[in-house]
């Protein structure tokens, strides 16, 4: 005779076993996926190939060799694989499909180098072109991938500009097709604003306009973009944005919906919030990166990025502060209260998330190290995981799958 109670208990146990097995499979699959994400990732680290002459610099013992390639381990740490010898590849921009990358070679005789990223993660140089300016420090690719826009910073007068280069189908760069000089500085900060200094180029969310940050002139210069034309940029001064004298606009990002823009100012040490209406920027707020110390040495705004989920803005303050500052983006596009974290290094010049979105990596130039942080996508909290790579004067880091 079948005991119905035993039968039900056995059925319940079987169901629980099946459910538990399913959960374990999901967990294992997730862990395998995460491991695979890390296993397939490599990082490229840009550097300065001369040691900066600055009070806070820790001498690395020998100058950098150029562009470094590192493996991303399963625990997020980095292991150096090899390097490509070149001069000061200080900024790296990825093509939209990840097959190519471009570095700005930040030297007096500025250049831009095109790179191919092979399926196994190896990197080879395709070609290099004259940047037609001095100390190119930033670049961006047009939305459809046809052009590269380079910001020639230029410490000396006369070498600052935005230069435009066509990108060929094989990833190589063509010769310059446009150049917009940044001549005039605001003069507000001696030796920093005696002339123009192009520091970054950023497209609006809809891709119709390019904004170029002029640290020396305290301006954002606006350009209409026409992808089908040989000379794709047309200056539109009606959309230019002026900042208070001595601000020094540096880098910018747009919110995921394109309705707001966020700009770091280097000398003012702020994030300036803009509403975007018809691709025009209307200032809404100015938020300090350091609310505890307002002295000049604690004001040095740096890079700015969005979190992978688009819910947070992360910016850097350098100088004597050296912090990462996290802001939640509120529903109205404004920024919530800043939460500040030690960068675990000096001069956190650039930072980026890996493909998993769980880890944030920071290139600290003056302490010659890369530090890592665990990122909580819901709260925006960062948890320091310490130094994960050591190399001379790292200035940028980007990840490739």
Tell me the series of helices and strands, N- to C-terminal: HEEEEEEEEEEEEEEEEEEEEEEEEEEEEE
Could you tell me the radius of gyration in angstroms? Answer: 23 Å
Shape: globular
> Would you tell me the structural class of the helices and strands?
mainly beta
Structure description:
The chain has 401 residues and is mostly beta strands. The protein has two domains: 1-39; 42-400, Methylamine Dehydrogenase, Chain H (7 Propeller). It has one helix spanning 4-39, and strands spanning 42-47, 66-72, 78-85, 89-94, 100-105, 111-117, 123-130, 136-141, 147-152, 161-166, 178-181, 198-203, 209-214, 219-225, 233-235, 241-242, 249-254, 260-265, 270-277, 280-288, 301-306, 312-317, 323-328, 339-342, 348-353, 359-364, 369-375, 382-390, 394-400. The strands form seven sheets. Strands 12, 13, 14, 15 and 16 form a five-stranded antiparallel sheet that branches. A four-stranded antiparallel sheet has the order 3-2-1-29, with no helix packed on it. The protein has a four-stranded antiparallel sheet with strand order 4-5-6-7, with no helix packed on it. Strand 25 and strand 26 form a beta hairpin. InterPro entries: Cycloisomerase_2, Haem_d1_sf, Lactonase_7-beta_prop, WD40/YVTN_repeat-like_dom_sf.
């Amino acid at each position: 005779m079948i005991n119905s109670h035993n039968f039900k208990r056995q059925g319940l146990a079987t169901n629980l076993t099946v459910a538990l097995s399913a959960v374990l499979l999901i967990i294992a699959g997730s862990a395998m996926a995460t491991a695979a994400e890390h296993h397939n990732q490599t990082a490229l680290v840009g550097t300065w190939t001369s040691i900066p002459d600055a009070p806070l610099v820790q001498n690395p013992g020998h100058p950098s060799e150029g562009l470094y390639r590192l493996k991303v381990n399963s625990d997020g740490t980095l292991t150096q694989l090899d390097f490509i010898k070149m001069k000061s590849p200080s900024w790296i921009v990825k093509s939209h499909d990840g097959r190519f990358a471009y570095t700005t070679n930040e030297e007096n005789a500025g250049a831009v180098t095109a790179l191919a990223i092979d399926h196994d993660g190896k990197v080879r140089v395709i070609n290099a072109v004259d940047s037609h300016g001095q100390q190119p420090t930033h670049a961006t690719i047009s939305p459809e991938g046809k052009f590269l826009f380079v910001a020639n910073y230029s410490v000396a007068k006369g070498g600052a500009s935005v230069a435009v280069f066509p990108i060929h189908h094989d990833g190589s760069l063509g010769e310059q097709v446009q150049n917009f000089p940044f001549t005039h500085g605001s003069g507000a900060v001696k030796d920093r604003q005696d002339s123009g200094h192009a520091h970054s180029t950023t497209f609006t969310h809809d891709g119709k306009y390019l904004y170029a940050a002029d640290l020396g002139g305290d301006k954002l210069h606006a350009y209409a973009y026409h992808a089908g034309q040989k000379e794709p940029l047309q200056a539109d001064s009606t959309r230019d944005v002026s900042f208070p004298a001595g601000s020094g606009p540096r880098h910018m990002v747009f919110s995921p919906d394109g309705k707001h823009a966020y700009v770091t100012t280097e000398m003012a040490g702020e994030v300036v919030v803009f509403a975007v209406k018809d691709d025009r920027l209307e200032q809404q707020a100015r938020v300090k990166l350091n609310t505890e110390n307002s002295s000049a040495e604690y004001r040095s705004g740096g890079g700015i990025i969005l979190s992978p989920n688009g819910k947070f803005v992360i910016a850097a303050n350098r100088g004597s502060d050296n912090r990462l500052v996290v802001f939640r983006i509120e529903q109205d596009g404004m920024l919530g209260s800043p939460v500040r974290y030690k960068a675990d290094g000096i001069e956190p010049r650039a930072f980026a998330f890996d493909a998993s979105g769980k880890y944030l990596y920071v290139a600290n130039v003056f302490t010659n190290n890369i530090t890592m942080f665990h990122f909580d996508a819901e709260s925006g909290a960062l948890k320091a995981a310490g130094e994960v790579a050591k190399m001379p004067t790292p200035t940028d880091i980007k990840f490739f799958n």
